[in-house]
């Protein structure tokens, strides 16, 4: 299963990053995965700043998988900035986190998250969850056209 658009994985934990990439492989999700290890890197990628200043801004991710507990800029602030900018306002954002805090769930939806998923601890359940995410967001979901293209 693939689209030509990349997946933006925003994850600071190297173990969770490796697990997610392995889950993509096991589920035959062949999209390019861009990994941002903190909120600043995610925003730099999305807005074409910092080390991503020369990237093709017409190519937005198919979906952003966003952890909440990130260094430098946390996931909720990333989400706030994504929704506030016309270029990224319609980007599908799935919060994929270990947080079970009701306030985090509330805040994520209030800021415009499309989905909130707790990372399963069990590897097989994690593989299954990522497969379902891929099926929905990369195959079934009809994305809105972005203002840029």
UniProtKB/TrEMBL annotation:
The keyword Phosphoprotein applies. One of its GO terms (biological process) is phosphorelay signal transduction system. The keyword Secreted does not apply. PROSITE patterns: RESPONSE_REGULATORY (PS50110). Keywords: Phosphoprotein. Residues 6-134 form the Response regulatory domain. InterPro entries: CheY-like_superfamily (IPR011006), Sig_transdc_resp-reg_receiver (IPR001789), TCS_response_regulator (IPR052893). The modification 4-aspartylphosphate is found at residue 67. It comes from the Bacteria. Signal peptide: none annotated. Gene3D superfamilies: 3.40.50.2300. This is Two-component system response regulator. The lineage of its organism: Bacteria, Pseudomonadati, Pseudomonadota, Betaproteobacteria, Rhodocyclales.
């Amino acid at each position: 299963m693939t689209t030509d658009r990349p997946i933006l994985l925003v994850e600071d934990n190297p173990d969770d990053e490796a697990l997610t990439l392995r889950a993509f492989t096991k589920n035959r999700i062949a999209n390019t995965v861009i990994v941002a290890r903190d909120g600043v890197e995610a925003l730099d990628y999305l807005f074409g700043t910092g080390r991503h200043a020369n990237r093709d801004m017409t190519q937005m991710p198919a979906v952003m998988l966003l952890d909440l507990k990130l260094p430098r800029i946390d996931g909720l602030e990333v989400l706030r900035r994504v929704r506030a900018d016309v270029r990224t306002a319609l980007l599908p954002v799935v919060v994929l986190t270990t947080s079970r805090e009701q306030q985090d769930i509330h805040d994520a939806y209030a800021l415009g998250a499309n989905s909130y998923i707790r990372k399963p601890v069990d590897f097989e359940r994690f593989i299954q969850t990522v497969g379902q995410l891929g099926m929905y967001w990369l195959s079934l979901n009809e994305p809105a056209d972005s203002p840029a293209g």
